[in-house]
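Postdoc handover notes: sequence design on the structure in folder B. Input tokens:
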């Protein structure tokens, strides 16, 4: 196994991290010449094994595991019974014993049979990438909707796997039972019980979805446009959200720091008020069941007037991360050429001085309609330009109409405030109330019909 940090003259792995629970992280890597024979990792060409391993270590640390070893295992082919070869299985068994590790994370999808065989060989709990992400989501969820969505995704995952330890329905703490815990018993998953629980959760989620739809319909009547932040996990969305809204959403150098959506009102330079939505971060190989489960949450993105794709431009895998986000957006029906998209190149403060200038020039050479905005959510660089770009994009499809109203028409003025964005209102010299409103063309036609006098 190739170590994450190789010491001269040794093939051992370097200790890393701190936390609770000792873990070993394995990054299986199918050599390039074997990729055509096995499509277990379709993004081999985009990402280096070292950066994938670094991300996997970050995922493990996100649930406070103490990563005592981390390394890449190069494969010429997949072994059906254990995924990795017999020699590597024995080598890792020695590492597990030496470090008294209780958890081994395989940063790929493994079958239930492979999981059982590896657990038997290593005498430790084995998590694959999907299981690890589900465990993180289970601990991060705070709202009822988020908790239901994660549990639904977890049950869907467990339904297809014969696992000894399905106990999370009996437990009160966060997470979903992959890692075990004090006082827990080993119980075989019962398909009928799981299906009944899935049915109850889906029923509860339908109620939540209806409530969320009512909230969205209510906002449409206000009506404030919505801008949704999307991006790879840890791209700085929550820090940017806090900077723009003066809110205090959890923002940390941690994968999946944000899970439940947060919305705040923001006033733009020329007076436009919008609602900014912070959403869950995307990640490579995001389990399909999670995308499906979080579709109700991601409807904030689907129905947004502007979609702000936040990228960590300082990250060495920035392009690969951008591709991963685009893949998820496509699943939501948002193509890369969607006119609502604005790309934000965040973390400019982390760029070396010479690279900073190159990035600015690269952005300015892009066509105006697709030009990225270079910002730093930490220092505030580029945020005025970003606000102006959002307002311009929002205004592109909205119409401004000037009205002269009787000041005594309280009902009409109230109607305008409920159905349009009132840009300004003031008494003119003729004793009339001059009101300027902005709205979508269809709403403007309703305004003209109602106030045709």
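Designed sequence:
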């Amino acid at each position: 196994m190739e170590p994450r940090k190789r010491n001269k003259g040794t093939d051992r792995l370097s200790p890393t991290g701190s936390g609770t629970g000792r873990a070993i992280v394995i990054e299986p890597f199918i050599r390039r010449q074997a990729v055509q024979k096995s499509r277990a990792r379709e993004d081999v060409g985009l990402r280096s094994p070292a950066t994938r391993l670094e991300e996997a270590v970050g995922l493990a640390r996100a649930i406070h595991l103490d990563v005592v070893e981390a390394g890449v295992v190069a494969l010429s082919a997949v072994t059906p019974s254990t995924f990795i070869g017999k020699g590597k299985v024995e080598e890792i068994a020695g590492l597990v014993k030496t470090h008294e590790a209780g958890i081994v994370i395989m940063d790929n999808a493994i079958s239930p049979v492979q999981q059982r065989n590896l657990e038997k060989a290593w005498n430790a709990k084995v998590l694959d990438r999907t299981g690890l992400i589900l465990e993180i989501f289970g601990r991060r969820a705070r709202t009822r909707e988020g908790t239901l969505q994660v549990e639904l995704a977890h049950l869907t995952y467990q339904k297809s796997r014969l696992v000894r330890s399905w106990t999370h329905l009996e437990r009160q703490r966060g997470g979903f039972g992959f890692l075990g815990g004090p006082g827990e018993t080993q119980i075989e998953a019962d398909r009928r019980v799981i299906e009944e629980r899935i049915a109850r959760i889906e029923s509860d989620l339908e109620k939540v979805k209806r409530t969320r739809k009512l909230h969205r319909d209510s906002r449409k009547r206000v009506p404030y446009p919505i801008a949704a932040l999307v991006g790879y996990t840890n791209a700085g969305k929550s820090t940017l959200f806090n900077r723009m809204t003066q809110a205090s959403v959890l923002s940390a150098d941690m994968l999946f720091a944000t899970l439940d959506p947060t919305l705040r009102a923001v006033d733009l330079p020329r007076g436009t008020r919008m609602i900014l939505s912070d959403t869950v971060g995307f990640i490579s190989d995001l389990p399909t069941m999670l995308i499906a489960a979080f579709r109700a949450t991601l409807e904030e993105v689907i129905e947004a007037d502007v979609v702000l794709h936040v990228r960590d431009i300082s990250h060495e895998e920035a392009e690969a991360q951008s591709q991963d986000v685009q893949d998820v957006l496509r699943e939501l029906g948002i193509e890369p050429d969607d006119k609502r998209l604005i790309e934000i190149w965040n973390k400019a403060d982390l760029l070396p001085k010479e690279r900073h200038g190159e990035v600015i020039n690269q952005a300015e050479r892009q066509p105006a309609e697709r030009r990225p905005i270079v910002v730093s959510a930490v220092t505030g660089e580029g945020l005025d330009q970003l606000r102006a770009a959002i307002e311009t994009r929002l205004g592109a499809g909205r119409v401004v109409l000037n009205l002269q109203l009787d000041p005594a028409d309280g009902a009409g003025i109230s109607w305008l405030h409920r159905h349009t964005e009132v840009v300004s209102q003031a008494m003119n010299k003729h004793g009339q109330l001059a009101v300027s409103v902005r709205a979508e063309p269809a709403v403007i036609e309703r305004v003209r019909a109602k106030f045709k006098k």
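Context for whoever picks this up: The chain has a mean pLDDT of 80. Don't rerun without checking with the PI first.
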